[in-house]
Design a protein that fits this description.
The complex is a heterodimer of chains A (about 775) and B (about 190). With about 775 residues, chain A is of the alpha/beta class. Chain A contains 28 helices and 23 strands. The longest helix of chain A is centred in the first third of the chain and has 35 residues. The longest helix of chain B is centred in the C-terminal third of the chain and has 14 residues. The chains are: A alpha/beta (about 775), B alpha/beta (about 190). Chains A and B meet through strand 3, helix 13, strand 22 and helix 26 of A and helix 3, helix 4 and helix 5 of B.
């Protein structure tokens, strides 16, 4: 398999015997990356079924437990089909396969969102910089793009390489998407395998997206001391024109800050972001600000602070234009995926567009040219600010009290609330000018505004909460460390051994959205707890913002208190959603740098290595989106367990191990080829916890790996036992299953563990060189599997 | 006991949580719970962390379930940190499993919480966020046909086999009291 890399010649003018041509671009065949001596592994650019055997191993060990949200299928005109009680639909699917099909559909959607984002970035940047622009993740990173190397066998060195890798990803996504069609796949395990494939492809697409923006847009490059940036609703300077950017694709937001800088208008503007665009705009320009996570869109727009709202793509409130219109904030849609019904003004004169927006002749426009976006937005914000006069749609407390008198006490607001918040009770309290309960609801509100849609009186209940809590959010300001990008090879070299041996007890990644069950404090508390225990904490996306909202007694956020180095006790923000592969990449690089395993096109071996040796655990406390599903799926295929908060149960499928079935916990000892019994770890591959307490205990437990050294196992057990005793109130009764030899026993707990071992007739077990792949047995004692 | 006549409708408490062609039978009379428990060979009570903060009248739900478990000789699975409250009250007939774990294990028709205490044919649940219990019950109704489920919360759970309709607190308190009384616990 050669690398699929095209050579291109581009000329402004070309004179030939056939005539004279302008703007000519010629592609010539394929070029092999001749100066990369790493041998190609067995599975470069794997197809949908190439890694099926690996998937089936994982899916046999961690069998799905489905919880269908719907017992019908209504995807084709055969239906609706009733799948209850073992019935099959007209196409032949039963509810188990249909449930797996829904999992695949979610992963496809998430993968598509990232791939389309990556494709837009790459095409845009090729247009700006040319296809041969060199890619880099920064100093100290020789193994750039480890996920792409692992999956495709290509090391992307130019934007053109990045484009070639996306070609592969897009082809794979087409296949996995097609499998969802009626009359294609019929087996739950193969739907699941394809979901893993979509997740793996998603990791590649995200990696490419972040690699190209890091390389071209002035982002921190593997910088553990990436800038601390201002965040929170109070961080905006309201004497300036405020521009709010929502979404994930930084190109339009960067065009805005670039235009402002080029025209010396920075002192007249504050540019801020919500969701991942917030991270990426601060990576581009550290003077930009972060409003907060995805769930803060409504509260900020309704506050009236933003003079212009710019939307790009993914996780935008699709009715944001209507809310912005109520505060006279023009909306600029910039992405072909989310035009918001606004008129296309891409080809119009800038001054004409600005005039129409500032006069409120149109509530917003779609502009597909990002450079034009920068100019239009800046000019509009400066001109509209004095006309808007900070118009807000938040009602006064007096108005709330007056309106609340007519509450029908129907409970529809509470019934619509995902978190079952006592909204009606808070409204009734407001009748008596008691706004405390509404403020309490604000603290746990995820900003969905379903309560408003449900209210028969059409109360703007979310706004009522925001008004009630105004004193809090008006003073909400904190510092967060913006995304650093990849982990340096030198950092991996330093921690590789202690992570694999278990002496650094684990790498915990908090990623994902802000669909929290009870506010976001739990994420901070979990990060702090495990950082104190010398785990490495890695963060991205909205979770990374939320962690920063909690201050200590000295007013410092966790980012001010803790190092951004990838080391024990560090709190490491890699960046936005598309930065997640830096986390997977760190695990992959441990296999490469510490264990000297080849990465190139060698997915199965590296996944097997990570699954058995690297104590990594992903947590998405507020997972909401299909993107979060595909991100998780990329980690599942690498054998990394993922925990989600309670709302994550709505992904409707867990991947559960059975600790009580010894036969499920066998590995080959690569030294001997013998099958040996191991402890049930990691016990699950995907799990929705009930609350933070369960998450704490499970996180420590899921960090246990078969390869832990005795010292590493003892350290990991100490944390598990300590947290179990704290939250469950007793010494865990399964400790003996994790003891292989006497030396695994934490010394201070020897008596209790010995008693449990005796009671359970414990026998010493070898510590294997663990692998699920027989072909990895030394001496080739195992054929192909 | 006049609970039945004043009950609210049997429809999902969270508005959009509709499921499919079938939905739970409405528990109109608490005596039905007693009859079902007497008929069951190996019932199981699953209690989540909301039980740590909820009360029925002045009694903590943990105390209530200890009484219920003792009276009916039903083992308890306490999920997450709920088990700590049971242990602190020196209650022993309790086992620790995660909520998703127990939903998965119960799909195995041979699984039992402890030797000779199963396989289970009836499960009672309480103490979860509405949507989480809804999903747990979905796993059981779709993939554990050997198990009947009763949910003891105030709100109608369509995926259960039997569920109270959405009840006002007073009616729910009355119902729980009557169930305990039927099973021989304190009134």
């Amino acid at each position: 398999m050669t690398e699929q890399k095209r050579a291109r010649i581009k000329a402004d003018k070309l004179d030939t015997g056939f005539g004279s041509f302008r703007n000519v671009e010629v592609t010539i065949g394929k070029v092999i990356d001749e100066d990369w001596d790493e041998p190609m592994g067995p599975t470069p650019m794997p197809g949908v079924t190439t890694l099926r055997d690996w998937d089936h191993k994982l899916l046999t060990k961690y069998e799905p437990s489905y919880m269908p949200a719907c017992q019908l299928c209504c995807l084709c005109t055969f239906g609706k089909c009733d799948l209850t009680g073992g019935k099959r639909g007209a196409c032949g699917l039963d509810i188990k396969a249909q449930s797996a099909r829904i999992v695949l559909a979610a992963c496809n959607i998430g993968c598509a969102a990232h791939l389309a984002h990556a494709r837009h970035l790459v095409d845009h940047l090729i247009h700006e910089f040319g296809p041969r622009y060199q890619l880099t993740q920064g100093e100290g990173v020789d193994i750039e793009a480890p996920v792409s190397r692992l999956v495709t066998g290509i090391r992307p060195r130019t934007l053109d390489d990045a484009s070639s890798i996306l070609d592969y990803c897009e082809t794979q996504l087409t296949h996995t998407l097609s499998a969802v069609h009626t009359g294609q796949e019929g087996s739950w395990i193969d739907f699941e395998s394809k979901a893993f494939h979509a997740g793996m492809v998603d990791q590649v697409g995200m990696e490419i997206a972040d690699l190209v923006q890091i390389s071209t847009m002035g982002f921190p490059q593997s910088d553990p001391e990436a800038p601390l940036v201002e965040a929170g609703m109070a961080s905006m300077d309201q004497s300036k024109a405020n521009i709010l950017c929502i979404g994930h694709n930084v190109v339009p937001a960067a065009a805005i800050t670039d235009y402002a800088m080029e025209h010396n208008l920075q002192n007249k503007l504050d540019v801020s972001g919500i969701c991942c665009t917030a991270w990426d705009i601060t990576r581009h320009d550290a003077k930009a600000k972060i409003v907060g996570p995805i769930s803060w869109q409504l509260r900020f727009v309704r506050s009236g602070i933003a003079d212009v709202v710019v939307v790009d793509e993914q996780c935008i409130r699709t009715d944001i234009a209507q809310h912005a219109q109520k505060v006279n904030a023009p909306v600029i849609a910039t992405c072909d995926k989310s035009c918001m019904g606004l008129p296309d003004r891409t080809n119009d004169d800038v001054d004409d567009i600005v005039a129409d927006l500032v006069s409120f002749k149109v509530p917003g426009v779609f502009i597909g040219d990002h450079n034009k976006v920068g100019e239009v937005v800046v000019k509009t914000a400066i001109a509209v600010k004095p006309k808007r006069k900070g118009k807000t749609s938040l009602p006064s407390k007096k108005k709330i009290q007056e309106l609340a008198q007519a509450c029908r006490q129907c409970s529809e607001c509470r019934r619509a609330c995902p978190n079952d918040q006592p909204i009606m009770e808070a409204v009734l309290a407001a009748q008596e000018a008691n706004f405390g309960p509404l403020g309490d609801v604000y603290d746990e509100c995820i900003g969905c505004a379903r309560c408003e849609s449900a209210c028969p009186n059409e109360y703007d209940l979310h706004s009522w909460m925001v008004t009630a809590a105004k004193d809090r959010w008006m003073n909400e300001s904190y510092l967060v460390r913006t995304g650093r990008g990849a982990i340096k090879d030198t950092e991996i070299r330093a921690v590789g051994q202690p992570v694999v041996f278990g002496e650094i007890p684990g790498v915990i990644a908090h990623v994902g959205c802000a669909n929290y069950p009870d506010g976001g404090r739990a994420i901070h508390d979990m990060c702090e707890e495990f950082a104190q225990r010398r785990f490495i904490i890695v963060l991205s996306g909205c979770a990374a913002m939320t962690v920063g909202t909690i201050k200590d007694d000295e007013g410092k956020s966790i980012y001010e208190r803790r190092s951004g180095h990838f080391d024990a006790g560090g709190v490491v923000n890699v960046g936005s959603c598309v930065s997640n592969p830096h986390i997977a990449g760190a695990a992959i690089k441990i296999a490469s740098i510490f264990a000297k395993r080849n990465l190139r096109g060698n997915y199965e071996e590296i996944a097997d290595y990570i699954h058995n040796r690297v104590g990594a655990v992903g947590i998405s406390w507020g997972a909401m989106s299909q993107k979060a599903a595909s991100i998780a799926s990329g980690f599942w295929r690498l054998g990394v367990p993922v925990i989600v908060g309670p709302h994550g149960a709505k992904y409707r499928r867990m991947l559960l191990g059975r600790a009580d079935r010894a036969k499920d916990w066998m590995v080959y000892d690569a030294r001997t080829g013998n099958e040996v019994q191991i402890a049930p770890g990691p016990e699950h591959l995907f799990y929705a916890v009930e609350n933070m307490e369960e998450c704490m205990v499970l996180t420590a437990k899921l960090a246990i790996r078969p390869n832990d050294t005795a010292r590493g196992r003892a350290i990991k057990l100490s944390h598990y036992i300590d947290l179990h005793e704290r939250y469950k109130g007793y010494f865990p009764d399964d400790v003996h299953t994790f003891i292989r030899r006497e030396t695994d026993i934490p010394i201070t707990l020897k008596d209790k563990i010995h008693a449990q071992m005796k009671e359970n007739k414990w026998k010493e077990r070898p510590i294997p060189d663990p692998t699920l792949l027989k072909r990895m047995v030394f001496g080739g004692n195992g054929g192909s599997k | 006991m006049e609970v039945a006549s004043k009950m609210m409708r049997a429809e999902p408490w969270q508005t959009a949580e509709v499921c499919g062609p079938t939905k739970a039978q409405e528990l109109k009379k608490p005596v039905v719970v007693g009859a079902l428990l007497k008929k069951a060979k190996h019932p199981l009570l699953i209690v989540g962390a909301n039980a740590l903060t909820e009360k029925t009248r002045k009694k903590s739900m943990i105390d209530y379930f200890i009484e219920l478990s003792t009276a009916a000789k039903i083992p308890v699975v306490a999920t997450s940190n709920t088990i700590k409250a049971f242990k602190e009250k020196n209650f022993d007939n309790v086992y620790s499993h995660g909520v998703m774990e127990i939903a998965g294990k119960l799909q195995d028709p041979d699984w039992m919480v402890a030797p000779k205490k199963g396989p289970h044919d009836l499960v009672m649940t309480f103490g979860y966020p509405y949507y989480m219990e809804w999903l747990m019950l979905s796993a059981l109704i779709n993939f554990a046909p050997q198990i009947k489920t009763i949910t003891l919360g105030r709100y109608f759970q369509p995926h259960a086999t039997w569920s109270f309709p959405n009840l006002k607190k007073q009616k729910w308190n009355d119902a729980l009291k009557e169930i305990l009384s039927i099973l021989g616990g304190t009134k």
